[in-house]
Amino acid sequence: MCRLFGLSAAPRRVHARFWLLEAPDSLAAQSRREPDGTGLGVFDAAGSPEVWKQPLAAYADKKFACEAKECASTTFLAHIRYASTGGLDPANTHPFLQHGRLFAHNGVLGDLPRLEDRLGEYRDLVQGDTDSERFFALVTQEIDAHHGDVSAGITAAARWAAANLPVFAINLVLTTADELWALRYPDTHDLYVLQRGAGGPHGDRHLEHASAAGRIRARSSGLARHRSVVVASERMDEDPGWQNLRPGELLHVGADLTATRRIVLEQPPRHALTLDDLGAHAAASQQAQ
């Protein structure tokens, strides 16, 4: 299963360090399937996006993923890819960039020719082979159709996909320089949110989050003093404030860290896929690693 991690400290820029692939610390960890790519997206002081991403096809690529990434941003987006569609290529590695926004996804969508027909000229935004990037192009299309309203664009794109495409899951995180959105749909995979007070539950701790699967680790000393909102595929520490988004629930974190949540998809997909419907490779990508 792909790993998603999003963080907003808006309106403050904070320094953070990310490890996108920690070394295995046990035989059990070594037995897990190796990821197919890692990526990290941030925004510079001028609000321009910066992305580091790499498919994991060789030792040098794994070294890239294990080395700490030092960065400063208001929002952060990290992704560990287990490929369902598309080969090992930078163009297929998350996060994707379109119209100044960053996007990462965990799930599977079918009938990509129908999705491409829906995109029209927005098909030109797609550089790789994945369903994820094509769905992002649909989100971008709908944002433009809704006059820049990102929440409305995500909602419209997800509703169209739920009604017209075979859907296994659409779990996503989208970031701009000072806002963050996350959608969990349907109930296939978890997607957790934590509204973290300054210093966490003890009031004096820096942020130190680590995936139980040993894949993503994030650290920020600045968040000992400032609030933040975190979104992740799994609970990443013992903070009791972690909450799983409800199926069909869209989270929006504003430029002042105000978080709003609402159900935007009330019904399951018209054509819901199961693991048995997926090919072996795609099915393996959607199981816990």
From TrEMBL:
Q: Does the keyword Iron apply?
A: no
Q: Mind listing the UniProt keywords for this protein, alphabetically?
A: Glutamine amidotransferase
Glutamine amidotransferase type-2 domain: residues covered? 2-256
InterPro entries the UniProt entry points to: EgtC-like, GATase_2_dom, Ntn_hydrolases_N
The family database entries (Gene3D superfamilies) matched by this protein are listed as: Glutamine Phosphoribosylpyrophosphate, subunit 1, domain 1 (3.60.20.10)
The record lists the membrane-crossing segments as none
Any Pfam family the entry gives: GATase_4
Q: Which domain of life is it from?
A: Bacteria
Query: By what name is this protein known?
Result: Glutamine amidotransferase
Q: Which organism is it from?
A: Amycolatopsis echigonensis
Give the organism's phylogenetic lineage: Bacteria, Bacillati, Actinomycetota, Actinomycetes, Pseudonocardiales
